[in-house]
Amino acid sequence: MQNNNLDTLKILFIIKGIINLLSTLFVIVMILGLGAFLTADIPANYETRPNELPFNPITIISSLGIFAVIVSIAYTVVTFLAAKYIGERKNHTFIVIVSVLNMFSGILGIGLGVFALIELHNDNVKPLFGRGITEKEQFL
Fold first, then answer.
1. What are the domain boundaries of the chain?
2. 20 Cβ partners below 8 Å, 6+ apart?
3. pTM of the model
4. CA distances to 57, 70, 94, 115, 125 from 2, in Å
5. 85-114: per-residue pLDDT in tens?
């Protein structure tokens, strides 16, 4: 049996996915809370003095909030998919891309991404994903 840290990497990706999910829930609560706070004051002022603001800020904030939630959910899903694929030992390229994307999400993401890239490009891990096999070795 070869030494690798793929099981540890899978657990770390699951933990990162849970953290992403919790941050998504936090964004949803913040958008709903901010929306409730703004709707208490802005619509009355906007309707009585429409020339004061050239736009409706509630529309912009809710649009940005919906976009942030969609991106965060997509990010969470691909992190969980990467954990699944690590366990199944397939889709090496997808896992590498998700590892690089994790590097944009703070210090935990940087650590996980670097650890994943080092582990995934290890010589004894590539054959587990069907990578690094030459044509001669493939027929043996």
1. 6-138
2. 72, 75, 76, 79, 105
3. 0.77
4. 58, 40, 23, 18, 8
5. 998 888 889 999 999 999 998 899 999 999
